[in-house]
Design a protein that fits this description.
The structure is a homotrimer.
Chain A lengths: L1 H5 L7 E6 H12 L4 E7 L2 E7 L5 E8 L5 E4 L3 E5 H8 L7 E7 L4 E6 L2 E6 L19 E6 H15 L8 E7 L4 E7 L4 E7 L5 E3 L4 E5 H8 L7 E6 L5 E7 L4 E7 L6
Antiparallel strand pairs in A: 1-5, 1-7, 2-3, 2-6, 3-4, 4-18, 7-8, 8-9, 10-14, 10-16, 11-12, 11-15, 12-13, 16-17, 17-18
Helix pairs in contact in A: 2-3, 4-5
């Protein structure tokens, strides 16, 4: 039976203590793409890889063991309902410490904070699709801006595409090597918008060949939880998927997204 | 005619001056259970007793005459639409003084604040059910916590019961005499939660035999207007109604609720 | 063709620089009545006159050239979608400078702020109804109150009329010359409200013959964007339209509304 092999990766016991809002930051980022996910309980920390149901966007999240007050994981994988986990984490204050304990015998995860003890039924990780690693795409162009700038560019793109009635919104990311600028461009039926980042506006910029069109919807999803002052690195190519990465929790949470381009447009 | 006898309790004239937000606090508490209520205009202050339409929860509210700048009541009862009264009170600022005047001839209540004068049609108190006094239940166990703690325990219970699809949420209040703790326990189909108060967490605790199951919905309703730093006293027994009481407006408003247990569960 | 004559008023080039929130204040005021409007690009500033689709209320807005950092207009008229303009203005911060440029050749308005450049398709002004000037109505009674007082009076009127089931809310503005007060009166089926301004409450008051009934809905619309500390001048007569005027942006934006009375009531 397939599950026999799978048992080799069934999770060992797991115990950890961490500030509530660090866990919330992790799961809010993952929740932008999926409602359920697998968590790898590695020596180095928690690792989550997830692809949205339409296969357009993918996230690779790593929360370092160093982000925890105490951390002990014997390896393996557990599956959780992300919405439920976020509900549970909303009960204690963000700065409280939460204690996590996974018992392989009951297949339940106990989340404790103060007198509050929540026993969360886990999801069989076999029922959640295995995701590939994020591919190395050789993207040469790179734009580093803060979360607030990204939010404004996406909002602007959304307004122009709202002037279209017959198609959902698209956004083009384009580097003009000669002018040394990166454009976020969107066109509606009547209006269009160009949000231009030059080397002065951006935190950092690497010029390279880049011109790809994306569905605005996915960028809005993944950008929603990003803090205005987070440093967001965006790598793009020519009709290639984009990679977007940022860190949180003092550099102990690494979030790396891949967003597929629109084709034939 | 029945109304002839009832006339003996028809309200005499009533005049009072009180800060707007004190009245709001009174009616918001009553509004958790009913949309219409009778107000007893007694020498000692305003008294409201009301039972929710399902006969599950009951409130006894007393706003002392000492909470008023001026207070003169000749006895009797008036009926009001609680939602409407709260709308009217939302117009002036909370710290303004409102003047209330009831004229038995017109059966209208005039609410004045600054240049604002609202003439509120009253409801015939005969059309509102007469409620019994809150019974003495001989409840021995008592937990005193602040409003914020109660809110967290109820939120936690709500999350666990959200994992059930086929029944509404229940919550068990249980004292473990040996461990000297009080549990707020909720079970869903897959998850469960236990919010435990020990003598350190609670403001005060009296150990006694207690284990009763309640509908979570009613507790959420009555707890909604409670301030996070209010001191809430909860008395429970074995498969008995619970009593929940707290004070507001510097001890001049007394709110006493009774919530019936779920049976056969 | 009628459009031949109209071409004489087609807009010349237009360029201007102004703080974003000044433009927002202008268009939010106009947006209380219309979704599209014509803008007169005069030497002295921008002028907008608009009537709501039901012909009940009218606004005359003037944003002085002095409100701009730079202003150059060659005359003529352009048509804009007010909702779209407000969306675009929401992208930059309110205190940023926006650069406006109209190119008669493309009939598009480019709005720029920082790296953000939005190209807005304009509406043919011929398709937007030409509005008359605001008439001189010879209104003698005048009440000057602040925006917060107006908001409270309208809220109060709305509560009383909510007690009616069969008609929409009306409000009567009435001067009692003998008592030297101005009443805002509303009557529902059971309740009624009287918000009285005397010479002490009001910032200024001119007694004159005045008693007119209005639809509450239009007053709520036009009052929505008014700041609580704005000085609002209301002029009324006997069964006559009312005029309501206030200034914003340090006196450089003038807003003048006319609201028609209800008749046969």
């Amino acid at each position: 039976m397939a599950t026999t092999d799978a048992d080799t990766e069934a999770a060992e016991g797991f115990e950890a203590i961490i500030q509530v809002d660090a866990l919330e930051t992790l799961f809010e980022a993952v929740n932008t793409l999926v409602d359920e996910c697998k968590i790898n309980l590695t020596d180095g920390g928690l690792e989550i890889t997830a692809v949205d149901p339409s296969n357009v966007a993918m996230v690779d999240a790593e929360l370092d063991a160093a982000a925890f007050e105490a951390y002990q994981a014997g390896g393996g994988v557990i599956g959780v309902n992300v919405d439920r986990v976020l509900d549970v984490l909303s009960v204690p204050d963000g700065e409280e410490l939460a204690q996590l304990a996974y018992d392989p015998a009951t297949r339940k995860l106990v989340i404790q904070a103060g007198g509050f003890e929540y026993t969360l039924a886990l999801i069989d990780p076999e029922t959640i699709r295995q995701e590939p690693d994020l591919p190395d795409l050789g993207l040469e162009a790179r734009l580093v801006i803060d979360g607030g700038q990204l939010d404004r560019a996406l909002t602007a793109a959304g307004i122009a595409t709202a002037s279209s009635s017959h198609k959902s919104g698209h956004m083009r990311l384009q580097v003009d090597a000669e002018a040394a600028v990166c454009h976020v461009v969107a066109e509606g039926d009547t209006d269009d918008v160009d949000y231009t980042f030059d080397t002065g506006d951006a935190i950092d910029m690497t010029i390279g060949p880049a011109d790809s069109m994306f569905s605005l919807e996915y960028w809005n999803d993944v950008a929603t939880p990003i803090d205005d002052d987070a440093r967001v690195s965006i790598r793009i190519g020519e009709e290639m998927p984009a990679r977007m990465a940022y860190s949180a929790i003092d550099g102990r949470l690494h979030l790396d997204y891949m967003i597929s381009p629109r084709v034939g447009q």
